[in-house]
């Protein structure tokens, strides 16, 4: 019997890309139809263009197309989570709607999966049409996360990936709110394989992930995956205290005990100012970091649902 594969596609204002990605995926599964059956789960993440109408039309024509609609824009990480939660397949493939992730690579993902790999990750070798800042930012992000996080993440890894049912089931148990889906999947472990691809420029529309959103995601990923930032404040505090203490000691001796032989002529006010600025710096940086953690704890304690589903189409009643 053919194995069911779920394809999860988060959608935010992709009216022109929907039919493109749908056709491309259908085509791939046409070649694979002896071995695999498919379902496509579109998660409409609060689009404000014609995406929803487009999706409903597709769902009418093809019952393999399933749709989850959010009541507003919750972000791609949550849309992906909702897709994974609602998927029925023995494996789930997550892919962007804008054709930046090539559907032609789906057979390769499935091949690695059949070889026993539980997670097959698309590795982006080139990012055509992306700005220098995004590319550089992504390099810096991976460099830092691999230094400070407990789990290693291969750079260039994307959300374009295949995830085995077993891993999906574990993933569905995550309750944390500040999530980067692919980071959590990497955290879960399991045997991984990598498939390289070149990212094409987005076909229509513009990227919903602004630089600011990406930086926010990177920050919350750092905080969620590592205690290093908190410890760093501690180390910094220690170093500054030690250095300024040492300097204060030198100044004290030089100015007050030896009568300024080097003619540095530090005024008392200047000495005091340096000292105070140093300590204010320490206190502020520690506070800022603690605020990040407290913010995280706060969100977890609230324990809100991750997303609100307003409509579901073509799903069996559970
Ligand atoms: N997306 C989403 N919610 C958002 C932003 C984006 O579901 O708030 C979807 C979008 O429709 C696309 C995928 O996530 O399918 C990747 O988005 P985008 O191309 O904007 O990001 P990038 O390519 O820069 O990572
Ligand atoms: Mg994109």
TrEMBL record:
<keyword id="KW-0812">Transmembrane</keyword>
<dbReference type="InterPro" id="IPR001173">
    <property type="entry name" value="Glyco_trans_2-like"/>
</dbReference>
<feature type="domain" description="Glycosyltransferase 2-like">
    <location>
        <begin position="6"/>
        <end position="168"/>
    </location>
</feature>
<protein>
    <recommendedName>
        <fullName>Glycosyltransferase 2-like domain-containing protein</fullName>
    </recommendedName>
</protein>
<dbReference type="GO" id="GO:0016757">
    <property type="term" value="F:glycosyltransferase activity"/>
</dbReference>
<dbReference type="InterPro" id="IPR050256">
    <property type="entry name" value="Glycosyltransferase_2"/>
</dbReference>
<dbReference type="Pfam" id="PF00535">
    <property type="entry name" value="Glycos_transf_2"/>
</dbReference>
<dbReference type="InterPro" id="IPR029044">
    <property type="entry name" value="Nucleotide-diphossugar_trans"/>
</dbReference>
<keyword id="KW-1133">Transmembrane helix</keyword>
<keyword id="KW-0472">Membrane</keyword>
<dbReference type="GO" id="GO:0005886">
    <property type="term" value="C:plasma membrane"/>
</dbReference>
<feature type="transmembrane region" description="Helical">
    <location>
        <begin position="273"/>
        <end position="294"/>
    </location>
</feature>
<feature type="transmembrane region" description="Helical">
    <location>
        <begin position="232"/>
        <end position="253"/>
    </location>
</feature>
<keyword id="KW-0328">Glycosyltransferase</keyword>
<keyword id="KW-0808">Transferase</keyword>
